[in-house]
Amino acid sequence: MYSKRRLKPAATREEGIVKVVAFNGSPRKKGNTYHCVQTVLAELKREGIRTDLIQLGGADIKGCRACYKCFEKKNMRCIQDDAFNLFMEKMIEADGIIIGSPTYFANVSTEVKALIDRAGLVAIANDYLFKRKVGAAVVAVRRAGGTDVYSAI
User: Fold this and answer.
1) Is the pLDDT score of 73 beyond 60?
2) What is the pLDDT of residues 80-98, one digit of tens each?
3) Which pLDDT band, with edges at 50, 70 and 90, does 46 fall under?
4) N- to C-terminal Cα distance for the chain?
């Protein structure tokens, strides 16, 4: 079971504190996606922005089942019992969200797809939790397919 603590949305925090959460969607913990995301985070840190990097690739996260329980409960959570709700808490508390993914057959990794689908539905079900948040995509690509990955994020 994951944390059920009361969330503190970014908009209610003290003025001047900016926090960005980043997700490494590659199962290779120190691979190309990790290094690309770290490059972005280094720039943010130089500007005094607090950052948090989460290893999403390889995490226990399932795809959305489209059960719409998040619309019934409206508790900023998904009913599936996996790592997703912890990730959702981090996104709610952040001012900005960065999602990094490798390019797998012209698309994102399975964990990135699950995060995007579930977070999107939970956010919409709870009065659009991500409105007014800044987002960015980081794509690691060797040949082709990078544009598709970027569009998916």
Assistant:
1) yes
2) 999 999 999 999 999 999 9
3) very high
4) 28
CA distances from 80 to 65, 72, 112, 122 (A): 9, 14, 16, 12
Q: What torsion do the CA atoms of 83, 86, 89, 95 make, to the nearest 10 degrees? A: -80
Closest CA to 7 of 96, 98, 75, 78: 75
54 touches 47 (CB < 8 A) = no
Structure-derived torsion over alpha carbons of residues 90, 95, 101, 105, reported in degrees to the nearest 10 = 110
C-alpha count within 13 angstroms, C-beta hemisphere, residue 142: 5
Which tokens sit at 54?
């989460």
CB-CB contact of 88 with 78 (8 Å): yes
- Residue 136 phi/psi, 5-degree rounding, is -150, 150
Contact 93, 19 (CB under 8 A): yes
| Buried/exposed 22-36: b ≥16 CB within 10 Å, e otherwise | bbbbbbeeeebbbeb
146 CB burial (10 A radius; 0-12, 13-18, 19+): middle
Say if CB 53 and CB 38 are below 8 A apart. yes
